[in-house]
Each structure stands twice: as structure tokens, then as C-alpha cells.
């Protein structure tokens, strides 16, 4: 199997000033093409560090992709290091990239400076993939078998430009590398901790064929993505084998699987509502609009989502949603009774078929009755109202995400139950 390494270059990543998102996007593209990523490295703006690390990566990988260090300022030294590494005798001006630089500067009302023109200069032993989104060209170095026998792609570090370069880089890789087929198949699971899920499906996992690999990919908003992968072999045969294993997994997990593809809870809820012709609204307290944000992030959600009330204050719960003051006084804001009244209130106000509500304590403080991470979820629909209590022990941001995801899953289950009855 073809192996690749991804290297980010720049002190700004090592000191935490900039978050590296380029590596993850590149890794996804490489993996989908059947290329195994062996390492991700971050290297500072130091000539010896760059040289030594790239030599090592080129020695043990077929492909090395770098991002960063190609700008016009003095701290951007990657181009010079790559010229030295490749044994280039000098630099040549790339006419195509120079024209792009001129076009970009002209569109911004800027004059061409010597420092801008220098970005079109590339080592004479590299090939160029034009970067139409920025001024730094994408450089390709093909090292002969006598040295490394590998290919290095140097991409700009600006995420917009790096991500924009991925299709062209992948096209070049496919044109020069014998790639193996790779098959990925995912199912989405919600409502089980990763450790509990692993223990529950252990007999199934242990019985998987040796060439079939299982990965657990948890996310607080989507649950756990179980991904089965096969590298190499015949695509049609592999597809049939994976589907057989997925069918067995569905028998084990039942409705804990909410989708048999790489999916989200909000998209799944949306499909269920569209299929049934029903509408939805939300009443949010502790989630502060997170549920509404997730639902409306799905294209076409206007077909089923009517709106929400972010009833953070008790007065809004009472005056807008109609939660009785005596209910709050008797049971407390974070309670089953208030969650139910909130859901029923927003359903009444909006006229929706279904409604979901949350009232809880995201943190950092709890109250006299509930610890931080407590949430009551209310869901109501044509056949009645249900409430569920959940407890999470995370920081405030993670608690809010988990509250919202749990609420969507409760809603999903009610819609499915209603469709069966």
C-alpha cells in the first residue's frame, strides 16, 4: 500500500497560535484514495529541522505533503530548503503563477512588488501546479530511486489555499502512483459510551475477517461512528462482505444505530420528519439555541422546522411558553415537569406536530438538587409527551453539545415509535 506523511511547517503551529486543520483534510483525501497516512508532523521555521525531518519522511514514505512556509516574508524558508533538498541549481520564474499573482494583486488594487514577483520563482528541479487561490505555487518534487524514490508536494499553509489544492494534488498522485482500492463503510450509533459499546460488540468484532478493520470514531454531537475498512481486493466482493457484517451488527444494536451511513442526528431527524410530513419546534434553556442551530444546519430544514423559543429566564418560560409558576416553584426549573411544560408550550405556540425541550445545568455550577451536567429533555408529539433525564460530566461547552445531541436522539425515537403505531 502507498504510504504518505503530512508535515506542517511554521512556528505559529508549534506555539498554538494557529490550529492545524490542513492535515486532517489532507488525511481524509489520502485515505479515501487508498493511501495510508503514517505520520503527521509539525516542524518549526528552522532550516536544519525542516531538512532532517523531510529527509526522514521521504526515506520511509512514498508521498510527503508539506503545508506552510511558502509566503513572501523572510520567515518563510521552506522554498529554499526544498531547493537544497532537491539539489536544484537555481530558480526559474513560472509564467502561469506570475500571471495569477498579477491578477490577484490587480483585483485588490495593489501594485506588483519585487517580493510578490519572487513568489513565482521556483527551484529548477520542481514541477508546478498552479495555485489559482493564492500567490504561492504548489511545488512537486519527484525524487529518483537513487535518492528517496518518493514524491514531495509543497502546499501553501493558508487553509483556503491548501484545501483548494487537494483535488489537483490527488489527480497528480493518481496519475503517478499505482493505488489500491479501499472500501469504507460506516454506521452511526448513539446512546452508548465507547467502552460499553466495545464490550457489547466484542464477540462480533473478534469474529471479523483479518483483512477487515474496525475503527471507533466518537463525537459528542453525532455519537460513535463505527467504520469498517478493507484495503485492496475486489471492490464488489468487498462490498458484499462488509454488508454482511453490517447486517449482523444491526441485529446486535437495533435502534442504537440511527443511520447506516456517515450521518448526523439532525439530518436523520430531518429525513424522518420529511417522510412523515410532520413539523418540529424547540424550546431551549440550557442548550441556548444549539438544537435549533443543528436542525437548521441541514439544507431543506425549512420544510419541517417552524422555529424555537430560547427560554433561558424563568420569566420567559412562564410568560411565553406558559409554564405554570407553581410547577417551577414545586419541582424546580431543572425537572421533568418543567421540561414537559416547555415542550408542550412551544408546540402550542408554533402549532408544530412535534416539539423538543431542554432544561438543565451546563456548568460550571450546579444547584442544591442537581449536579453540573444534569439535563431534563422533553419531547411531545401527536401521541403524548415523554421526559428523559441525562447526566453528563464534561465542561460547559461539551455538556451543551451532549444535551442537544441527546435531545435529538429522544426526538428521533419518538418519531420512529409513532410511525410504527
Set out the fold topology.
Layout: E1 3-9, H1 11-14, H2 22-32, E2 36-43, H3 47-60, E3 63-67, H4 78-86, E4 91-93, H5 95-107, H6 114-117, E5 121-123, E6 127-129, E7 138-142, E8 151-155, H7 159-176, E9 182-189, H8 194-200, H9 202-206, E10 212-219, E11 223-231, H10 235-253, E12 257-259, H11 265-276, E13 280-284, H12 290-296, E14 305-310, H13 314-319, H14 325-331, H15 336-350, E15 354-360, E16 374-381, E17 384-391, H16 396-420
Parallel strand pairs: 1-2, 1-3, 3-8, 13-14, 13-15
Antiparallel strand pairs: 4-5, 6-7, 7-8, 9-11, 9-12, 10-11, 15-16, 16-17
Helix pairs in contact: 2-7, 3-4, 11-16
Report on this structure.
This protein is an alpha/beta fold and about 425 residues long. It contains 16 helices and 17 strands. It has helices at about 10-15, 20-30, 45-60, 80-85, 95-105, 115, 160-175, 195-200, 200-205, 235-255, 265-275, 290-295, 315-320, 325-330, 335-350, 395-420, and strands at about 5-10, 35-45, 65, 90-95, 120-125, 125-130, 140, 150-155, 180-190, 210-220, 225-230, 255-260, 280-285, 305-310, 355-360, 375-380, 385-390. Strands 2-1-3-8-7-6 form a 6-stranded mixed beta sheet, sandwiched between helices. α2 runs parallel beside α7 (about 160-175), α3 crosses α4 (about 80-85) and α11 (about 265-275) packs parallel to α16. The two termini are about 50 Å apart. The mean pLDDT is about 95.
Amino acid at each position: 500500500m502507498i504510504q504518505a506523511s503530512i508535515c506542517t511547517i511554521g512556528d505559529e503551529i508549534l506555539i498554538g497560535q494557529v490550529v492545524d486543520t490542513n492535515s486532517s483534510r489532507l488525511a481524509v483525501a489520502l485515505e479515501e484514495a487508498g493511501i495510508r497516512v503514517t505520520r503527521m508532523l509539525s516542524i518549526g521555521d528552522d532550516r536544519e529541522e525542516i531538512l532532517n525531518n523531510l529527509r526522514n519522511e521521504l526515506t520511509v514514505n512514498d508521498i510527503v505533503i508539506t503545508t506552510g512556509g511558502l509566503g513572501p516574508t523572510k520567515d518563510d524558508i521552506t522554498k529554499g530548503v526544498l531547493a537544497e533538498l532537491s539539489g536544484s541549481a537555481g530558480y526559474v520564474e513560472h509564467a502561469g503563477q506570475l500571471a495569477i499573482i498579477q491578477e490577484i494583486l490587480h483585483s485588490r488594487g495593489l501594485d506588483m512588488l519585487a517580493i510578490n514577483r519572487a513568489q513565482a520563482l521556483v527551484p529548477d528541479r520542481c514541477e508546478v501546479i498552479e495555485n489559482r487561490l493564492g500567490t504561492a505555487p504548489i511545488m512537486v518534487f519527484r525524487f529518483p530511486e537513487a535518492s528517496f524514490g518518493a514524491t514531495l508536494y509543497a502546499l501553501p499553509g493558508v487553509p483556503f489555499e491548501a484545501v483548494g489544492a487537494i483535488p489537483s494534488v490527488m489527480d497528480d498522485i493518481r496519475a503517478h502512483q499505482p493505488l489500491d482500492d479501499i472500501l469504507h463503510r460506516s454506521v452511526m450509533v448513539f446512546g452508548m459510551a465507547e467502552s460499553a459499546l466495545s464490550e457489547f460488540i466484542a464477540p462480533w468484532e473478534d469474529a471479523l475477517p483479518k483483512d477487515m478493520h474496525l475503527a471507533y470514531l466518537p463525537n459528542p454531537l453525532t455519537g460513535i461512528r463505527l467504520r469498517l475498512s478493507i484495503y485492496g481486493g475486489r471492490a464488489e466482493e468487498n462490498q458484499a462482505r462488509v454488508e454482511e457484517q453490517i447486517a449482523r451488527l444491526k441485529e446486535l444494536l437495533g435502534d442504537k444505530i440511527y443511520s447506516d451511513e456517515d450521518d448526523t442526528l439532525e439530518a436523520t431527524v430531518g429525513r424522518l420528519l420529511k417522510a412523515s410530513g410532520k413539523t418540529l419546534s424547540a424550546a431551549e434553556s440550557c442548550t441556548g439555541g444549539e438544537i435549533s442551530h443543528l436542525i437548521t444546519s441541514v439544507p431543506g430544514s425549512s420544510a419541517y422546522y417552524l422555529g424555537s423559543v430560547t427560554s433561558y429566564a424563568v420569566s420567559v418560560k412562564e410568560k411565553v411558553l406558559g409554564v405554570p409558576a407553581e410547577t417551577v416553584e414545586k419541582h424546580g426549573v431543572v425537572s421533568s415537569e418543567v421540561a414537559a411544560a416547555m415542550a408542550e408550550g412551544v408546540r402550542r405556540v408554533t402549532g408544530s406536530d412535534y416539539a423538543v425541550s431542554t432544561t438543565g445545568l451546563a456548568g460550571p455550577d450546579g444547584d442544591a438538587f442537581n449536579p453540573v451536567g444534569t439535563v431534563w429533555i422533553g419531547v411531545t408529539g401527536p401521541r403524548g409527551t415523554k421526559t428523559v433525564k441525562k447526566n453528563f460530566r464534561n465542561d460547559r461547552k461539551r455538556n451543551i453539545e451532549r444535551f442537544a445531541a441527546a435531545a435529538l436522539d429522544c426526538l428521533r425515537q419518538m418519531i420512529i415509535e409513532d410511525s410504527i403505531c
